[in-house]
Amino acid sequence: MKTGPPNSPSAAAAVAALCPACGFCCNGVLFADVELQRSDDAARLRALGLRLAAKGGKQCFRQPCPGFDGRLCRLYAERPERCRTFACRLLQRVIAEELAPAAALRSVTAAARVAGRVRDLVRALGETDETLPLHRRYARIMAQPLDFAGDESVLEQRSKLMLAVDRLAKRLARDFLT
Ligand code: SF4
Ligand code: SF4
What we know:
Layout: H1 9-18, E1 33-35, H2 42-47, E2 52-55, E3 58-62, H3 81-85, H4 89-95, H5 101-124, H6 134-143, H7 152-176
Antiparallel strand pairs: 1-3, 2-3
The structure holds iron/sulfur cluster (2 copies).
One iron/sulfur cluster binds next to loops.
């Protein structure tokens, strides 16, 4: 995650226009986990429902984030530091007035459609654990050996999934990652 939006009215307007339609930085599409910062109160965040874990000598909370309600952050007033400061590339460009909000929203809508397609295929292929980030569910499917003598529809779904993941990864890299 990158240091992000200034607390200006235009930044708040950009967040309001884009983020409720997206949620990628909360729902396990962009990240598997987020590091806690010095100013974060780990005990309080745990009490609020975040799933904390140790990682490389630091603490992080896992994504998909239990604080995300599908559109908004349920613990907005008490959200961790990284959540307060993060802005994806798309949001940064809108705040900097390099990109019109309507164009950014079209990018969000297109990426959300592809992410939804990936999620549907992942579920159809048996990875139904919604507490895992999307890329980990995909990796679990791809770790399973291919059975060319087995159900053809499974092979077909796997190749559709690979294509959809490729599309999603390209969109995320181009529009959202910094
Ligand atoms: S990925 Fe960007 S647009 Fe999407 S919710 Fe996060 S900050 Fe907002
Ligand atoms: S605490 Fe809120 S802003 Fe941070 S990842 Fe969770 S839902 Fe998103």
